[in-house]
């Protein structure tokens, strides 16, 4: 909405007299509101302010940690070369034709493309590499510009690594992002039958873009590459998504003036020389954006624009859905005449206590002056309307020509990069010191209830380590410098600086009595966890916008935010509407529609509903009613009562077979296209959904296990990641001599059985087969991990021990993988994944068989719409839909919501690091889930009992396993009798060979 003097109007109140009860209720509400306002006002304290007294160079120093030499952070490179930016302004341009490459890997799948925009190089895969030779006319610093267009693929951005002369110049050059462009399919948004707005489809804008290689977590300006005079080689390395390249060039960096220099270069501003004018641009009315993760949201409070008036209305943009460095949004705004203008932002910034949120602001594609490179919007608890202003509150003025202009805002965390680097190094020093103290004291315990430190012993630390105090003091000094830098940057205290202050107090207590350090080693883990928690949010820059205002400097739009008193009548209005508005969509469910119950969180259900309405129903003509199933017992009770859905999603791995045994699930194997659908999944994982010759469910998501290892620690010990269990046995003495160990989940009997060729059931599914020679060998190996090799039995949190470094190698699942990516930024680059250790075979291969947990979908036997239900399952489990759903969930809600799809092709489309994807795909080849036969639930119980007898009670492995065999067989016989199975085999699918990826694995 633009125009001179336009304002946002809000509903006025009816003057209809209130009843006596209504008047009393209103008085009570007003009294409560006024009281709460007084309490809020009187309890609020003026936050202490801090000046910037520490520079980035003081924070980071001139030294570089030895283990970072191969991957020098860009911030450190610039500290070494303060002259780079000035020199870059005078560098000559160097143009490179992408079609004239000198070398390329076959995996790149290159082809020349022709179109209306001219010839280009089509890089039709996400892998491989391409190399060009070029000449630099003189030495200097250069920006790398790429004229590109993403090719059809997934919904994520393109990523390429950039090497100069065979090496990455700095760490950030390994992952240069070339973003796709997106917009909402329609604006204004459509509304459903209840008048609620429906989130629009995200439409990709397919066009050529020119981008300078950049990383807004490291620098607000494009990254600079150093070129000496002479010949060079530029190599781009495929990491994610295909792309077309029309031009590559090394360019000078534009000299950026200060605001004072910018203002003096434009026509002089004279007070009162322009008519008063302002124009509002709604934040949700953006023109384009860089990621589908940037989303609109609903907000209801006085003076929000537009007012939802009790309906779901997407009237704000961003928040936690616009937080990652490099994510940008672009709006178009028009001004009536040449002149000076001020930019106001109605924004909400209450996501990280005490921290500013940074945005790089561009006008028509350029940052006008240096102060807008990383403009900080201060922390505040409510919406505020404020001009983009300097530290004294004076608004920055920009000179614009009459007509339309583009305003672009990019999330930027580069001011916090020095903090992130300093904390990562300091936490590494704390971890090293922790391990050093444990080596001295022999405190190697990793079990939850087995602390082996003598709390009564007095240690003479000066004897064992004369430098212990000095080492701790250096850590304390560094943390204090970090805290001063953070407070100066924000101008106030923050949650992170409070965590640092608390950590310093704990370390200071150790310094006061160095001899007490051994009895306080657990404090090191507490410190790492406390600081690490806040450290993981440093790169996040959430900011919510209601609208943007361009105005002449003398105008006062009179726009308002919500006040304490205005919230009371507003809340009463919403309360009153709740009695008259229809919020029940169930009553408007389409007749004859599929009924789908989903046992997942509401966020998952809402996205599925949107996608089904936008894609499935228009394609098939089949309407769907998708409802939340908060408890799996609803399905059991509904089945007994005859009130069942057509399709159930989000079920446990064993549920389809459980229902099949009771003739309550539909066999899917007879439906058209069943064979093609099953090719979407790993056969070994899907066998858990088979029963008595039929298939009763489809996999949705999977949970795999991997080997996790700390690369820095294993390298320091001269060790490598183990490939077989023999390698594990060889490395354990070295780990244990250094006060470390390995994590092997004590309940993971299945991996040992499967890797040793032991299936717990006979091929017909009627007999227990635990006591076979292979089974006895597997059970012996499993239990000896804890008796002979003394692995810890009860580790309360492998993640934390792995983070601390005292358990630098271990087996864990997908949840640990996500946790390490999200919550352990201080060890980023110092850990890796590998397939599980396996058992060597005679042909030289290593068997790595292991089960994968599954979440499943099934069609109910009592459904009256089975054919339509099958169409839905085919759509839902398809490559495209699973890839989009996974991408949208992660983009909207973060890495924590990663949808680990069981669809093998869609899984590749997720943003896995290349090395991790390779390990995941290799381990996935060896997936072999346990079949679910009558009495299957006794297997896990009996294996736990057998393990306890051998490990805790010392009963021989063979004898203990025989007891488990007898108990399991007894229960299987009982259940077979219950289900009327009289010696007829169940036909358990046999998986003898690992899955073949067809040569597509890279």
Beta fraction: 15-25%
**Stretches with pLDDT under 50, minimum 5 residues:** 1-45
Describe the oligomeric state of these chains in a short phrase.
single chain
Structural class: alpha+beta
What profile does the largest beta sheet have? Answer: 7 strands, antiparallel
CATH architecture of the largest domain: 3-Layer(aba) Sandwich
What gap, in angstroms, lies between the N and C termini?
Answer: 50 Å
Overall mean confidence score, pLDDT: 90
What is the CATH superfamily classification of the largest domain?
Periplasmic binding protein-like II
Helix content: 25-40%
**Overall geometry:** globular
The total beta strand count reads 39
Model description:
The chain is of the alpha+beta class. It folds into five domains: 171 residues, Jelly Rolls; 186 residues, Jelly Rolls (Sandwich); 119 residues; 184 residues, D-Maltodextrin-Binding Protein, domain 2 (3-Layer(aba) Sandwich), CATH 3.40.190.10; 195 residues, Periplasmic binding protein-like II (D-Maltodextrin-Binding Protein, domain 2, 3-Layer(aba) Sandwich). The protein is 33% helix and 21% strand. It has 28 helices and 39 strands. The strands form nine sheets. Strands 1, 3, 4, 6, 11, 12 and 14 form a seven-stranded antiparallel β-sheet that branches. Strands 15, 17, 18, 20, 23, 24 and 26 form a seven-stranded antiparallel β-sheet that branches. Strands 2-5-13-7-8 form a five-stranded antiparallel β-sheet, with no helix packed on it. A hairpin with a 5-residue loop joins strand 37 and strand 38. The chain is globular, with a radius of gyration of 32 Å.
């Amino acid at each position: 909405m633009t125009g001179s003097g336009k304002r946002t109007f809000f509903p006025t109140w009816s003057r209809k007299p209130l009843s006596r009860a209504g008047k009393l209720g209103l008085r009570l509400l007003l009294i409560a509101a006024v009281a709460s306002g007084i309490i809020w006002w009187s309890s609020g304290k003026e936050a202490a302010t801090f000046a910037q007294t520490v520079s980035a160079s003081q924070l980071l120093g001139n030294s570089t940690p030895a283990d970072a030499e191969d991957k020098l952070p860009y911030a450190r490179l610039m500290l070494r070369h303060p002259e780079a930016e000035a020199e870059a302004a005078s560098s000559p341009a160097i143009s490179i034709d992408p079609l004239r490459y000198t070398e390329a890997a076959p995996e790149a799948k290159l082809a020349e493309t022709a179109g209306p925009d001219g010839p280009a190089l089509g890089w039709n895969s996400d892998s491989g590499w391409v190399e060009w030779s070029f000449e630099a006319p003189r030495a200097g610093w250069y920006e790398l510009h790429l004229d590109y267009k993403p090719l059809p693929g997934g919904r994520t951005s393109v990523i390429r690594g950039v090497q100069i002369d065979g090496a990455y110049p700095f760490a950030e050059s390994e992952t240069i992002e070339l973003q796709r462009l997106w917009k909402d399919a329609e604006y204004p948004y459509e509304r459903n039958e209840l008048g609620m707005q429906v989130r629009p489809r995200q439409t990709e804008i397919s066009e050529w873009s020119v981008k300078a290689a950049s990383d807004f977590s490291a620098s607000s300006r494009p990254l600079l590459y150093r070129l000496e005079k002479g010949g060079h080689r530029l190599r781009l390395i495929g990491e994610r998504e295909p792309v077309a390249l029309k031009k590559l060039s090394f360019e000078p960096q534009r000299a950026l003036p200060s605001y004072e220099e910018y203002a003096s270069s434009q026509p002089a501003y004279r007070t009162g020389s322009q008519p008063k004018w302002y124009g509002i641009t709604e934040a949700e009315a953006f023109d384009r954006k860089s990621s589908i993760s940037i989303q609109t949201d609903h907000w209801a409070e006085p003076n929000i624009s537009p007012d939802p008036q009790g309906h779901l209305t997407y009237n704000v943009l961003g928040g936690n859905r616009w937080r990652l460095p490099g994510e940008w949004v672009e709006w178009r705004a028009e001004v009536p005449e040449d002149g000076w203008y001020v930019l106001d932002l109605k924004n909400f910034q209450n996501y990280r206590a005490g921290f500013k949120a940074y945005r790089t602001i561009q006008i028509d594609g350029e940052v006008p002056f240096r102060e807008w490179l990383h403009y900080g919007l201060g922390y505040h608890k409510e919406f505020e309307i404020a001009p983009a202003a300097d530290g004294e509150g004076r608004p920055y003025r920009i000179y614009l020509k009459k007509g339309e202009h583009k305003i672009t805002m990019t999330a930027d965390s580069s001011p916090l990069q020095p903090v992130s680097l300093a904390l990562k190094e300091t936490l590494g020093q704390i971890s090293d010191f922790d391990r050093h103290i444990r080596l001295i004291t022999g405190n190697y315990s990793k079990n939850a209830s087995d602390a082996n430190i003598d709390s009564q012993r007095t240690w003479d630390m000066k004897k064992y380590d004369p430098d212990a105090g000095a080492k701790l003091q250096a850590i304390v000094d560094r943390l204090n410098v970090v805290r001063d830098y953070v407070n100066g940057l924000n101008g106030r205290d923050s949650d992170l600086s409070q965590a640092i202050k608390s950590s310093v107090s704990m370390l200071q207590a150790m310094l006061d009595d160095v001899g007490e350090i051994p009895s306080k080693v657990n404090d090191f883990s507490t410190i790492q966890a406390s600081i690490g928690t806040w450290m993981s949010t440093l790169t996040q820059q959430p900011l919510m916008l209601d609208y943007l205002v361009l105005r002449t400097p003398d105008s006062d739009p009179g726009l308002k935010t919500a006040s304490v008193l205005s919230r009371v009548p507003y809340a009463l209005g919403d309360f009153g509407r709740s009695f008259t508005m229809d919020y029940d969509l169930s009553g408007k469910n389409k007749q004859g529609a599929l009924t789908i119950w989903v046992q997942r969180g509401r966020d998952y259900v809402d996205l599925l509903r949107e996608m089904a309405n936008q894609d499935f129903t228009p394609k098939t003509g089949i309407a769907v009613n998708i409802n939340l199933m908060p408890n799996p017992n609803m399905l059991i009770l509904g089945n007994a009562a005859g009130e069942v859905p057509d399709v159930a999603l989000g079920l446990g791995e064993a549920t389809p077979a459980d229902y099949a045994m009771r003739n309550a699930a539909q066999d899917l194997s007879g439906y058209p296209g069943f064979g093609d659908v099953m090719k979407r999944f790993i056969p070994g994982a899907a066998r858990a959904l088979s029963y008595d010759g039929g298939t009763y469910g489809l996999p949705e998501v999977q949970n795999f296990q991997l080997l996790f290892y700390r690369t820095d620690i294993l390298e320091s010990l001269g060790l490598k990641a183990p490939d077989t269990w023999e390698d594990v046995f060889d490395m354990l003495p070295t780990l244990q001599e250094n006060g470390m160990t390995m994590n092997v989940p004590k309940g993971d009997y299945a991996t040992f059985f499967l890797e040793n060729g032991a299936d717990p059931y006979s091929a017909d599914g009627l007999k227990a087969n635990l006591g076979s020679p292979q089974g006895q060998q597997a059970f012996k190996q499993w239990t000896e991990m804890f008796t002979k090799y003394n692995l810890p039995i009860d580790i309360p949190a492998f993640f934390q021990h792995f983070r601390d470094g005292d358990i630098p190698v271990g087996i864990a699942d997908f949840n640990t993988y996500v946790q390490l990516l999200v919550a352990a930024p201080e060890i980023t680059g110092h850990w890796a994944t590998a397939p599980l250790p396996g058992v060597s075979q005679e042909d030289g291969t290593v068997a790595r068989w292991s089960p994968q947990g599954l979440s499943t979908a099934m069609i109910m036997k009592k459904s009256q719409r089975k054919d339509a239900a099958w169409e839905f399952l085919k759509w839902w489990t398809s490559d495209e839909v699973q890839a989009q759903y996974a991408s949208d969930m992660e983009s909207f809600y973060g890495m924590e919501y990663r949808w680990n799809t069981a669809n093998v092709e869609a899984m590749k489309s997720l943003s896995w690091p290349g090395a991790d994807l390779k390990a995941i795909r290799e381990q996935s080849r060896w997936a072999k889930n346990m079949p679910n036969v009558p009495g299957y639930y006794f297997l896990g119980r009996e294996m736990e009992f057998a393990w306890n007898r051998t490990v805790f009670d010392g009963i021989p492995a063979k004898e203990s396993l025989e007891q488990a065999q007898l108990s399991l067989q007894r229960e299987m016989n009982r259940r077979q009798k219950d289900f009327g199975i009289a010696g007829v085999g169940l036909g358990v699918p046999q998986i003898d060979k690992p899955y073949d990826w067809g040569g597509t694995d890279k």
